[in-house]
Structures are given as C-alpha cells and as structure tokens.
Specification:
This protein is α/β, with parallel strands linked by helices. It contains eight helices and 19 strands. It folds into three domains: about 100 residues, 3-Layer(bba) Sandwich (FAD/NAD(P)-binding domain), CATH 3.50.50; about 60 residues, no CATH class; about 150 residues, FAD/NAD(P)-binding domain (3-Layer(bba) Sandwich). It has a four-stranded parallel β-sheet with strand order 5-2-1-13, with helices on one face. α1 links the parallel β1 and β2.
C-alpha cells in the first residue's frame, strides 16, 4: 500500500483477550498508537477465567496479568473497556471508527478501587466471572486483577431498575459514583483495524440432551475451571453446585457442541477440548487423589507439541479411565442429585454408571 497524506499510523485492536493484548503490545512497542477496545468491563477475556494452561499447567493469571500492567502503563496504548464498535467507515490507511462507550456508572478518573461501594451494596447478583456459580454485588470489580481496577454497576441495580437505592453513591468518599451517567459515542481515526474477538462458548442448552441448566450437577468446562481456581466460588475447592459437597466420581464428556451434525452443534473439531479435559483431570486428581475420573471421548486428538505426552500423563494416573463411546445422560437421581450416564463399548455393550458430577 502506498503512503499518502491521509494515512493514519494509529491502530484499533478490537478485543481485549490475550490475543488482542499481545497484538496491542507488539504494535505499541513498534511505535504505533493503539486503541485497545474491549466490550467487557476489563481486559483479559476468557483466559482470565482459566486456572491453568496446558500442556505445562502454568498458572493462567500468572502469564496474563503482567501483560495487563504492561498494557495499562504503555504510553502508546489507550485501553477502552466497556466499549463496542458501532460503525466503521473509510478504507485501508484511513478508517473512521465510531465507538459506543457503555455507562459503567463509575468515573474511572476518580475511582481508587477501594471497593467500599461493594461492601455497602445490598443487592446480590449472580457473578458472571464465576459463571454464576456464586454471587457478587450489583456494583463490583469484575475480578481482583482487573484492568482498569474500577467497579461497574450491573443492570439489576435497584437504582437502575426503579430509582430506589443510592447507597453506593453516598458512601463513596471520592464521589466517583455517577448513577446518571449515559452511554456516549467516541470517534477515532486509525489506519488499520486488528480483529481479535476471541471465541464464543458453546451453550449445551442449545442441544437440550445433556441436562445442562436442568440438572444442577451438570457443568461446562468453563464452570469447572472456576471450581478449580483459587479465586473461584469456593476458593479452589471442588464442590458440587447442588449441595456443596466434594464429588468423588466425575465424568467428562468430549466434543459437546463439536464434531456433531445434529441441530445446535458444529461439524468441526474444537481443537482444544481433548487437552483441556486432560488438564482438568490432572488438576482434579491434584486436588483429591481419590477422585474416580472417567473421560468419555470420540477420539483423542493430541496435535500440538508435547500434547501426546500430556495425554499419557493423564491416562496413567490411578483412578482415571478413558472410554471411547458416545454417551447419553440418562437421569438425575432425586435423592442424591447424582447423574446416570449410558454408554456402549465393543467389548461390554451398553452400560450405565452413576456419577456425582458431570
């Protein structure tokens, strides 16, 4: 592309997950002014919710949080959270991008992140960061390492619903709460746009045959990540949602939502579920060596460096079984809230087993 007088050197990075963060840092270090746009209240994306990363089982937040700080302090990066792209006009080298800044009802320049407002807030709401496995307050910081370290107010706030509560506003010594804050548009001119939107998490309720949303002890892999994590709903204890007891028999189901031709699924392989399930099995056994772990899979796809070794590490653990079979969640046992799973193998035919958590 030839250089013209209308070319802008600034870059817009859309998506503040780990890929967007790294792209912003690389561009900023190369001398470009970067606008890092993220629709969530903080940068970090899905990686911030993970406990460990495969195949090394390194702490996820230990890898990512230093990059938060680096982004926040870099003079060439402007972080715009709680912001969405509304419109893009122009051409390569000269884009006019309209951003929609959603109201967080907290002034970022005045807030010190003291969380006194959260302490006094009387309204509990399901915590989205913990996959709604625990509650938080209507005003809260998204997670402890958030950048920016500024609360936002959930739409279920009593003031936003019916103008009946202003406690947070009255207890804030810095006058940072602004319950009348409105959304606003901001226009930026950039020469290039980098799209790093991340991924959407498959909702098993779309299929309807796994019991997720109907049976309390059926959880997704991201739910289980939060159960494993020390910053999760039970501070790293693996407890069942139904009765907060330790599960002793856990089943993992592969390929939920992928490699499926039925309605609600995708035909392609997700490329990650084999390894993150193996990671979760290893971590669950670290938490409780006596756990009976059964992994139901279609195939094992260990395509990356050291992934086969990682699979073998999980498979060799005592009390771990890998069973190649399609499965069906039969029923929930009313007395215990345990789940039954039906499956079939060439050697044993159709069998049914009971699990505390799926």
């Amino acid at each position: 592309m030839s250089t013209t007088e209308t070319n802008f050197g600034d870059v817009l990075v859309v998506g503040g997950g780990i890929s967007g963060i790294q792209a912003a840092l690389d561009l900023a270090t190369s001398g470009f002014k970067v606008f890092l746009v993220e629709r969530a209240p903080t940068i970090g994306g899905k990686m911030a919710q993970l406990d460990k990363t495969f195949p090394t089982n390194d702490c996820s937040m230990c890898i990512e949080s230093p990059k938060f700080i680096e982004c926040d302090r870099h003079p060439n990066i402007e972080i715009l959270t709680y912001t969405e792209v509304d419109a893009v006009e122009g051409q390569a080298g000269d884009f006019e991008v309209t951003l929609l800044r959603k109201p967080r009802y907290v002034n970022e320049d005045l807030c010190t992140g003291c969380t006194v407002c959260r302490e006094y807030c009387p309204i509990p709401v399901p915590d989205p960061f913990n996959q709604e496995l625990s509650t938080n307050k209507a005003i809260h910081i998204h997670f402890p390492q958030a950048v920016p370290l500024v609360p936002y107010i959930d739409g279920r706030c009593r003031y936003l619903e019916d103008r009946k509560c202003t406690i947070c506003e009255s207890v804030c010594k810095n006058k940072a709460i602004d319950l009348r804050q409105k959304g606003r548009k901001q226009v930026v001119h950039v020469g290039a746009v980098v799209l790093s939107p991340g991924y959407g998490v498959f909702d098993p309720r779309a299929r309807g045959d796994y019991g997720y949303g109907r049976f309390a002890n059926v959880v997704t892999s991201l739910d289980f990540e939060r159960l494993l994590c020390a910053t999760g709903p039970h501070e790293g204890e693996i407890l069942r949602p139904s009765d907060k007891k330790h599960p002793h028999r856990i089943a993992w189901l592969h390929c939920v939502g992928s490699r499926q031709v039925l309605a609600g699924g995708h035909r392609w392989c997700s490329a990650v579920c084999c390894s993150y399930i193996q990671k979760q099995v290893i971590l669950a056994k670290d938490h409780d060596a006596g756990i009976e772990a059964v992994v139901f899979h279609h195939d094992i796809r260990a395509f990356g460096k050291d992934f086969e070794r990682f699979y073998q590490r999980a498979a060799k653990l005592p009390g771990v079984e890998f069973i190649r079979s399609y499965v069906d969640i039969g029923r929930e046992i009313p007395e215990t809230k345990n789940l039954t799973i039906r499956y079939a193998t060439a050697a044993d035919g159709v069998k049914e087993r009971e699990f505390d958590l799926v």
